[in-house]
Amino acid sequence: MTDFGYIAAEFEDKEIVVLQKLVKKICKQDDFYYSNVVDYIKGDVTKNLHLTIFYGLIDNKIDKVKLNRYIRGIKLKTFKLGKCILVPGYKDLYQSLRIEVLDKDKNLQMISDSFKKFNYEKSVQLEFRPHLTLAYVKPDFKLGSSYVFPKEIKIKEIKYFEK
User: Fold this and answer.
1) What is the CB neighbour count within 10 angstroms for residue 22?
2) What domains can you pick out in the chain, each with its CATH number?
3) Rounded mean pLDDT of 117-127?
4) Taking a C-beta distance cutoff of 8 angstroms, is the pair 130, 50 a contact?
5) Would you say the pTM of this structure is higher than 0.70?
6) pLDDT at residue 144, as a whole number
């Protein structure tokens, strides 16, 4: 299997701590799902909280200097947050607990699409749905009716990650 590079927004620790506390309110330890096959599907994943902006860059075919210069030109400071949702996972083995990232003006979608000017693999492109994955939970897990959390999150940095 080929690994691909990706662009992601990272957050300050103090921003992450708030969402870690939220997960502890929402989930009990035995609600979490851990995959034996996929290394990133490991229960509470807030310690690695990020928002993937674009996935599928072909590491050995891109000019990393040009790419990093382009990334530095992106002027995003915060993301507006929506509601907590559950999204079914592969073959309904699990669900991902997420917070929607709102993109009403489609600016984030345009930024994601702009990375298509670099070498990327079309076959791994999924529909861009901005979100923060908080945890992977068992398929029978149910969300309560409402949770209190900030309505925006500050971005620490947008970076390119090689696989």
Assistant:
1) 20
2) 5-161 (3.90.1140.10)
3) 91
4) no
5) yes
6) 86
Which tokens is 34 given? 């851990």
DSSP string computed for the chain: ----EEEEEEE-HHHHHHHHHHHHHH--GGGB-B-SS-TT-BSB-GGG-EEEEEEEE-GGGS-HHHHHHHHHT----EEEEEEEEEEE-GGGS-EEEEEEE--TT-HHHHHHHHGGGS-B-GGG------EEEEEEE-TT----S-----SEEEEEEEEEE--
- Token pair 């009990």 in the structure block, residue: 28
Largest Cα separation within the chain, whole Å, is 47
Look-up of token digits 């997420």: 98
Give the confidence band of 3 by pLDDT, cuts at 50, 70, 90. confident
pLDDT tens digits along 69-107:
999 999 999 999 999 999 999 999 999 999 999 999 999
